[in-house]
Specification:
By secondary structure, this protein is an alpha+beta fold. Helix content is about 25%, strand content about 30%. Strands 1-4-5-6-7-9-8 form a seven-stranded mixed sheet, sandwiched between helices. It starts with a strand and ends in a 17-residue tail after the last strand. The model has no long low-confidence stretch (mean pLDDT about 95). The protein binds coenzyme A.
Length: about 180
Amino acid sequence: MPPLVRAIEPRDLPAIREELHRHWHSTEIWSLGHRHCADRLPGFVAEVDGVFAGLVTLHLDEGAWQCEVVTLSSRQTHAGIGSALLRAAEGFARTHGCRRIYLTTTNDNTHAIRFYQRREWRFSALHQGIVDRVRALVPDLPLLGFDGIQVHDELEFELWLVDTGASHDTTRRDSIA
Ligand SMILES: CC(C)(COP(=O)(O)OP(=O)(O)OC[C@H]1O[C@@H](n2cnc3c(N)ncnc32)[C@H](O)[C@@H]1OP(=O)(O)O)[C@@H](O)C(=O)NCCC(=O)NCCS
């Protein structure tokens, strides 16, 4: 059964807090050196048969020219929930007139790195050592992540929602340097 995706409502708060703790051990999420109280952010929940099945939380940058996906998670993987939530996030950004939607994931999260690229998001930056700098402030941030990989960096992914005018046709050029 496909998930139902709807905007977060006040009654979702307990499930949202549980979901954030399940994956991030806190409702405070650090990304790009900023601390988000993710349980207060707008976003969407997914439900399957009326039961909470996933969450995406979003932050509009000042002026709403771009939107950040702060967290994305699903309770039941490989059932289309993450994709449905990511589409809802993209719709939210378009509705708010954003030109770009972006997110970061940590260097250990090879599954997410694959997932976003499969959905045509592009790698846009490496924030080397940024998690180490946050860990200096928040010592209980775990060092070991997925597959026993040490977590040090954030990888930024983006999707442009407007035509940036960049030409990717290099077939008739001798050099792209
Ligand atoms: C990353 C994450 C959100 C992906 O969510 P998900 O619900 O598994 O995503 P989907 O089910 O939409 O897609 C995953 C794969 O399952 C496939 N799939 C979807 N429905 C399916 C079905 N009915 N049967 C078989 N496969 C299916 C998708 O095609 C996709 O494969 P692809 O990438 O090769 O196309 C999830 O793994 C997660 O919660 N991870 C932990 C938290 C996290 O790391 N979040 C990201 C960092 S912010």
